[in-house]
């Protein structure tokens, strides 16, 4: 039988709090642990969250990433500048440039280096990272009166308020 939306709504909502303080054996099939990859969140909400990804995660993630990138860029592949503190597993980019950015506070110090990197590109880029970094970047480029060759922005891991989205769209 085909599941309906009502069937989906009957499923319990699970949050990070449901897993904190529990033993791995309570929430993990221990026979899969050795074949899985350990990862964690940054802890920006107060406590890092540790979890495991099954061995097929990366392949699924690559396919999802490809669809998102093409959708954001109207079917085109563009160079991607990942503005993060570390590589994100499961994201494979065609033309990928990693731009170290520990957090939004480092944007003001790294803006000249980002401008230098973007000046080497022959086309506009997609920026990939956290909303807080893009908000700060938009503020800084507005303040400096500069334009960056940005085709699109892909924000991850944080909510984006409508006012912040408007700022990012107008400045990046």
Folded structure, characterized:
The protein is an alpha/beta fold and 172 residues long. It is 36% helix and 17% strand. The protein is built from 6 helices and 6 strands, in the order H-H-E-E-H-E-E-H-E-H-E-H. The strands form 2 sheets. The protein has a 4-stranded parallel β-sheet with strand order 4-3-5-6, with helices on one face. Strands 1-2 form a two-stranded antiparallel sheet. Helix 5 (131-144) crosses helix 6. The protein is globular. The chain starts with a helix and ends with a helix. 15% of the residues are buried.
Structural class: alpha/beta
Helix content: 25-40%
Shape: globular
- In what order do the strands lie side by side in the largest sheet? 4-3-5-6
Number of E-state strands:
6
Q: Alpha-carbon distance between the termini? A: 47 Å
Strand content: 15-25%
Low-confidence stretches: none
Radius of gyration in whole Å, from Cα? 19 Å
Largest beta-sheet characterization: 4 strands, parallel
Which sequence of SSEs, written as H and E, runs from N to C? Answer: HHEEHEEHEHEH
Count of alpha/pi helices: 6
Mean pLDDT figure? 87
Mind sketching the topology for me?
Blueprint: H1 5-9, H2 24-27, E1 37-40, E2 50-53, H3 57-72, E3 80-84, E4 96-100, H4 107-119, E5 125-129, H5 131-144, E6 150-155, H6 162-171
Parallel strand pairs: 3-4, 3-5, 5-6
Antiparallel strand pairs: 1-2
Task: Describe this protein with a few key phrases.
172 residues; alpha/beta; two-stranded antiparallel sheet; 6 strands; globular
Short description:
The protein is of the alpha/beta class and 172 residues long. 36% of the residues lie in helices and 17% in strands.
């Amino acid at each position: 039988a085909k599941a309906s939306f009502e069937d989906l709504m009957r499923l319990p909502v699970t949050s990070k709090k449901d897993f904190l303080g529990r033993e791995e054996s309570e929430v993990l099939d221990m026979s899969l642990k050795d074949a899985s990859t350990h990862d964690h969140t940054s802890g920006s909400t107060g406590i890092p969250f540790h979890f495991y990804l099954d061995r097929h995660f990366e392949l699924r993630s690559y396919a999802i990433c490809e669809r998102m990138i093409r959708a954001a860029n109207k079917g085109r592949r563009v160079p991607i500048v990942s503005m993060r503190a570390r590589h994100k597993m499961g994201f494979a980019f065609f033309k990928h440039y990693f731009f170290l950015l520990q957090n939004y506070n480092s944007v003001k110090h790294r803006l000249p280096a980002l401008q230098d990197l973007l000046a080497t590109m022959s086309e506009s880029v997609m920026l990939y990272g956290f909303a807080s970094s893009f908000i700060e970047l938009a503020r800084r480029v507005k303040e400096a009166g500069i334009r960056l060759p940005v085709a699109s922005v892909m924000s991850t891991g944080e909510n984006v308020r409508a006012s912040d989205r408007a700022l990012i769209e107008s400045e990046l």
